[in-house]
Prior knowledge:
The protein is of the alpha/beta class. It has helices at 7-14, 20-31, 33-36, 41-48, 52-61, 67-88, 96-116, 120-132, 144-156, 169-177, 195-206, 220-224, 246-264, 268-284; strands at residues 136-140, 163-166, 184-188, 210-215, 227-230.
Amino acid sequence: MNRPTNLIETIEQIVPNLKKAERRVAESVLQDIEGTTRISIKAFSAQTGVSEPTIMRFARRVGCDGFSDFKLRLAQDFAVGRMYIEAERRVQAGDTDSTARHVYQSATDALATAFAGLDEKTLTGAASIIAKADKVACLGVGGSSAIMAQEMENRLFRFGLSVTSSADPYKQRMLAAIADRNDAFLIFSVTGKPRSLVDATEIAAGRGANVIAITQPQSPLAAHATTLLPLSVPGDEVHFNFPNRTRYGQMLVIDCLSALVGALRQPASARKLHRIRTVLLALHGHTEAQPIGD
């Protein structure tokens, strides 16, 4: 059996094996998790109809020092997993039309917000740094940011740039350690907090490399970057089954940067794209307006 990952899961798993009084405590907690985090042991005793010593025994059974510690851990776990816990306790609206409308609206709002936050001078400067770099490293961790780093590599290599991407925390620091003054780093992060990215930024900047961060302003990552492309897309109502919409803003920045870099590296970039198109014809033949390796 898999070990439970948090207090709420622990309680759910042990309910069938509890004696009557402690089972009453567990069931009462699971029925109103949030309410339990705010109640006194005296009031909880009256509510459940069990003695305070029984409540204390239950708290210790699940690994807590006492009822106060139990409430604290319960509150922490509930805060972290609230959208998932609530999803299990109610039927989710899953019809195609409302889902498609939600995704569409979320994407358009995120794009509008990200576009409004773009600074033309900073964007142009970042593109110029990338276009002139000897080597480019694209870094990100986690979900969308790691994928965006890969996507940036995918956009830039076709212009003839020496570019790599990494989501490995060790390799990120290693790439930063061997950075030179004419290298460029593109760091993607929704929060601007991952330790490996902040460390890599500090190390690379310390070696004189240009570090462009696409992240939240006022974040640790933003503070250490040499160029900041601020990306602050407010979260809408959180749903467990909808992805974070910030990635639409990240994609806007990626496409703007790659288009500018391609233009700045003319005519070499056009020649390289033409060579790519030529070798791809052997795979699919000639098609009008075929994407170049997408």
